[in-house]
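INTERNAL TRANSFER SHEET
From: sequence group
To: structure group
Subject: FHA domain-containing protein

Please process the attached sequence and return the structure record in the designated field. Keep the field labels unchanged so the import script can parse them.
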Amino acid sequence: MSDNAYRLQMQNGPEPGRSYELQGDSLTIGRYPLADIVIDDPDVGYRHALLTRQGATYRIADLGCDAGTYVNGRRVGAEPVALAPGDVILLGARLSAAFLSAGPVIIDQIMEQAADDAPPAEPPVEAENGESGAMVDEEPWATPALAPLAAEVRSPIHPEPLPAMPPPPPKRTNRLAWITAGCLLMLLACCCASSLFMYFIAGDWLLNLLRSL
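Return from structure group:
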């Protein structure tokens, strides 16, 4: 890849994050299916903008789209405007793309700039004994004022055993139910005895009485 290779990376729209490698001296951006960079979005014109190669970079010009073309917030007209790596191109009211360099020279410069902007590392903290980075193995409560509290925290807690639960009281027998059941049984027995008496003994007597009449 050459040092002057560039790409256009979409930041939003139908395909956010997609990159278009810029190859050629003239590239058309728009919704036109035969455009060099096709962006199917209603905010993008049919033939929206034109990228032209000039020297080591590209320039962009608006192709008369009503939605407009902007570079870093400034509107671009028919006169081409030179682009630099990192510029943000706005197509219409909301669709934006970043003009980025894919060359190794620019990447090295970005890495060097990030290293320069990084905060310096903090020096190691020296302990009282003069050793660098020595850790002081001291408990935070190892002071006379907090010694009783430390002893209380360290001592295991043995809770007293709970008293045994008393046995459940015995269930009271429902005497009324037993008395009722006994009465019903006695009544049933009386009915059965009366029926037997009437069938075997009183039946013949009543029959003879009726015949005599």
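Handover comment: The CA atoms of residues 193 and 199 lie 10 Å apart. The radius of gyration is 52 Å.
Transfer complete.
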